[in-house]
Specification:
By secondary structure, this protein is of the alpha/beta class. It has one domain (4-177): 3-Layer(aba) Sandwich (Rossmann fold), CATH 3.40.50. The protein has seven helices and five strands, in the order E-H-E-H-H-H-E-H-E-H-E-H. Strand 4, helix 6 and strand 5 form a beta-alpha-beta unit. The protein is elongated and about 75 Å long.
Length: 178
């Protein structure tokens, strides 16, 4: 079974997932069934910024795990936006990716083309799974780009499977001819 995608949006700006849901469905991409507040808490939890936010560790504990569980229950490719992850260290990024075991993680970075994508994340994800988009996209435009990325990944997955089937078919034909 092919791994499902987890399209993780990193960007200094927040996005409204409620406005994006309809456009994301075009690419067969779901969002985890959590509030925007839980995604904010997840960003605070992973970046360990709870003191700066005036919260205790107990208040943010388990927020990212909840997002990951809800993403797994979606039974589809998933898109989540956690802008606080943009400034994460490599250890924090690795911790966040540990929760996404079983997913094929694709980064969608909206930092624009002038700034480099966060090195902590880029070093942990394959280069062909990092997509840098302009920073001035609206929510609907971003959703359309994410749906396009999901469809491109699905096309690559199907092409790979088709090549495997073609090789297997050649082997079977050779055995039959012998």
């Amino acid at each position: 079974m092919a791994k499902r995608l987890f399209l993780l949006h990193l960007g200094p700006d927040t996005v409204d997932l409620d406005e994006m849901r309809e456009d994301l469905r075009l690419g067969r991409v779901a969002t985890p069934d959590v509030d925007a507040e839980v995604l904010d808490l997840a960003g605070i939890e992973i970046t360990r910024a709870h003191r700066a936010a005036g919260m205790s560790r107990k208040e943010v504990e388990g927020a990212w795990a909840k997002v990951c569980r809800r993403a797994w229950k979606a039974k589809a490719d998933v898109f989540a936006s956690v802008p606080a992850f943009f400034d994460a260290t490599s250890e924090q990024a690795a911790l966040a990716l540990d929760g996404l075991a079983g997913f094929k993680v694709v980064l969608v970075v909206t930092s624009g083309f002038a700034a480099q994508p966060p090195a902590a994340w880029v070093s942990l994800v394959k280069p062909d799974r990092v997509h840098v988009l302009p920073d001035n996209l609206g929510d609907e435009q971003l959703a359309a780009q994410v749906a396009r990325i999901a469809l491109m990944e699905e096309e690559a997955r199907l092409d790979k499977r088709l090549a495997k089937v073609a090789r297997r078919r050649k082997q079977v034909n050779r055995r039959l001819a012998a």
